[in-house]
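User: New here, any thoughts?
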Amino acid sequence: MYDFNYQRADSVADASAKVKASDDGMLMAGGMTLIPTLKQRLAQPADVVDLGGISELAGISVDGDTVTIGAMTTHATVAASADVKSKIPALADLADGIGDPQVRNRGTIGGSIANNDPAADYPSACVGLGATIVTDQREITADDFFVGMFETALEEGEVVIAVKFPVPGKAAYMKFPNPASRYAIVGVFVSEGSGGCRVAVTGAGQDGVFRVGEMESALSSGFNADAVAGIAVSADDLNSDIHASAEYRAHLVTVMAKRAVAKAG
């Protein structure tokens, strides 16, 4: 680990100011990705600004058909929330399958989406539900937020405040997990709501989470597993590594989509 200055922010404005004042500052939420990255010397920030002391960034609220989850809310809290289980059980189920108990009790939704790991679970929920990411400067639709592998639309010093999820009529998430890390080799989040049907895939794409328009159109005509059974995605732009080839991931997208639709239906 390289030397860095550790700073603890006491407000969102303070966190933003500290990062902007640094030559190369980084925000830290739960630290489940950042700390291992620093240990392996894959990053060398001048300053690490800890958001852990900003209590107002954590919490879950429901307003009509919208569930708002604060950026510093842990995966375990989302998984155990009665409000989330009642309104969007698929989201609680997704959170309960992230990593191990230690990760779920430290990792946060804001940290996960800001990091935008291509195998993370939450980006598929955000895109699959048509969520809105709220920052200290603006609101960004999930479709516009996730730009590419480990890249988002966040500007320097911009802090994620919360994520707003619209309550769907139906939704489910299914993933084929790496047996060691529990990261998604392929994960598919499907939903049917007032805005139509959505199918979001994580773990497979070289640029991170992506939607499958052909499956969405098919589900709009009939929300059942058979509607997506014959739809295959191209392996051309999918990840290929020691865990799964691009062709295998392409196959898993259809399999996980079928299972997710059946679970939601």
In short: The CA atoms of residues 26 and 39 lie 15 Å apart. The chain has a mean pLDDT of 96.
